[in-house]
Amino acid sequence: SGPHLHYELVINNNPVNSLAFRAAAPADNKLEQHAFAHARDYERYLD
Predict the structure, then answer these.
(1) What single string gives the DSSP state of each residue in the chain?
(2) pLDDT, tens digit (0-9, with 9 covering 90-100), for 1-47
(3) Where do the domains of the chain lie?
(4) What is the rounded distance in angstroms from the CA atom of residue 25 to the CA atom of residue 46?
(5) CA distance 19 to 8
(6) Cα radius of gyration rounded to whole Å, the chain
(7) The pTM is what?
(8) How far apart are CA 25 and CA 45, in angstroms?
């Protein structure tokens, strides 16, 4: 049958219906900039 993708949403070790899952509101711009700054710091460890 070939390669396929298994998708599963688990929160606190419990399976969750991804169609009924309500995601949190997006972070504000200040928090987003903070997260990207930390991501760039850790990115150098991947090289």
Answers:
(1) ---------EETTEE--TTT--PPPPPPHHHHHHHHHHHHHHHGGG-
(2) 789 998 899 999 999 998 998 888 877 778 888 888 888 888 888 76
(3) 10-46
(4) 29
(5) 11
(6) 16
(7) 0.40
(8) 30
Q: Are 34 and 40 in contact (CB under 8 A)?
A: no
Q: Which pair of tokens denotes residue 7?
A: 């998708």
Structure tokens given for 13: 């070790």
Instruction: Kindly report the length of the chain.
Output: 47
Amino acid at residue number 21? F
